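#structure-requests
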Amino acid sequence: MRRNAAKLRTTPQTTSVPSGGQPSVGREGGQEGGQEEGEATIWIGVNYWSRTGGPLMWRDYRPEVVDEELKVMREHGITLTRSFFFWPDFMPAENTLDPEMLAHYDDFLDRHQAQGMHTIPTFIVGHMSGQNWDPVWRGGRDIFGDASFVAQQEWYVRELTQRWKDHPAVAGWLLTNEIPIYGDWRSRGIGTLDATTVTAWAKTLVNAIRGTGARQPVSIGDGAWGVEMTGADNGFRVRDLEPLIDFHGPHVYRMETDPVRQHLGAAFVCELLDIGGKPVIMEEFGVTSDYVSEENAAHYYRQILHNTLLAGATGWMPWNNTDYDALWDQEPYSHHPFEMHFGITDEAGRPKEQLREVKRFTELLARVDFGRLHRQDTRVALVVSSFLEKMYPFTQPEDASSVLNHTRQAYVAAREADLPVGVAREADGLPDDCSLYLLPSAKQLTAGGWRHLVRRAEAGATVYASFFTGEHGVQRGPWWPKLDETFGVVKKLRYGLTEPIEDEELVLTFQRDFGTIRAGERLTFTVAGTENSRSYLPVEPDGAEVVATDAHGRPALLRRRHGAGQLVLSTYPVEHMAAVTPRVNPEPTWRLYAALAAEAGVVPEVSVDDPRVLVARMVHEEGRSYVWFVSQHAAPLSVTPTMVAGSLRDLEGEKLTTIELPTYGVVIAELGEVDDRATS
């Protein structure tokens, strides 16, 4: 199974061809220029408003401030900004552009060029940092469906693109900033924006850019919050928009109850965006200093940067370049004061630790020649039920959110087991080339999806599924056709009723050796869930062998041999229980997944016996491998890697037998004498 790590190219994948001289951390080691046709482009950027103006910076444009701010960014490895045309200022009337605003942006581009930097202009900025702004001439017209208003947007986009398409500082184009919120701020577009209308609108504006002959990459700027990513349809469907764009641009500001889920939340978004083979650029992420200490902000940046890299991202643009204390009485900061302090520099332009973290990251990318690294193929598939994104009739919103929450928690457990898991969307058709398929706490899968998994087991794969009855009471129960025959059991469920888990802990005792788990070992899980979901599946074996039992001697993990492979059933929703439990990770599901991987013959090339350290490998096109060790622990750790073959050396060439990790730290080592096999 291939995993996406597509990079922007000087010849992108759609019909546009971006201009040369874009920022690269590849052969050029982070320097601009000198790229050959089709070479990888790595964007290391930042979202930009000047500290003296914020969204109103173009009204009081201060070139000396722009120069100073760009210089600080450039000194810390940032070669790109995402800039914004504040729509009410740039287009004060229909078919009208403000000449003063245009002149200011001319100067802004020239100053980027002088610094050896580039920018991505964003056209329709009607939403920004907790406020929506209409151009005065909108007149209440629908953004996406009113023909006259769409025509004005088309004119605006075309005119601005025509003016700047040949400027060497322009690296790409974004249609909007988080326009689902502008479209309907109360719902964020969920259930109120029509997908057909939105896609037609996007096509019109993208064609306006392409029609000028502009050669830079294009994307939407909507945050990638479509139903495929969230389970909630806001009209901006990733699959519908993907043919129009050159890269996906997620905006990720997760609020979590578990540190590891928080650190891997953006990474899982990147994995889910493996749609259409397009590059994934972390278009927005960051923290406000009003929420966290500077030390913890730096930890967060480090985790997001490295974990999204390992999840396939090939570009990063934090929000944002500076703090805005001088603008305390200007909207949106007057009513959203925490928005003043997302900067990677403070109100005086001094670097915060977040910016130093970005600099360390860019230096590391140059050192390992990241532009020529790729993720290894994998034979471990995390199955994402199509009930996440397909709006099947007579289903409930919780059906989609459960899929998202459970697969995200399963992704955490797989990473803790050091498995290079790949996301396999049922909606795309499940892959045939994997040795291990993980179906975590899934109430629903289509009949065709189940048939495919059974066939994969017959062909030699290990297929794992855990029981889940659902969080709500509508058609409560597992929608698993022929559950008994599939898993070699007789289910003892009663119609309309659940079998509640009454213990506060689930203790599994293994009755036989299973992968890396020995007979007699115990795993203890926290029990959680709603009155509907805190339930188990009572079964009797009927052809299956009992691998583990619960504290009452009931079958909890069973295996049925099938053809050349096996089907493994957990009668408890272990991923669901973990997903709804605060501060639970690491929890024992990682042990179960490591054992399943061993059963399937997909032992990772490098691993550690400590789930608080995540291990992943990337391969250079010349054959050498680099291994990331990423700590999830709030104190220093020392771990000893286990390797299938080869030896580890630090980037100075010194041999490593143990890895010393600071608090939430990251260490990268080179793995010698290992080929690029799709193991695992």
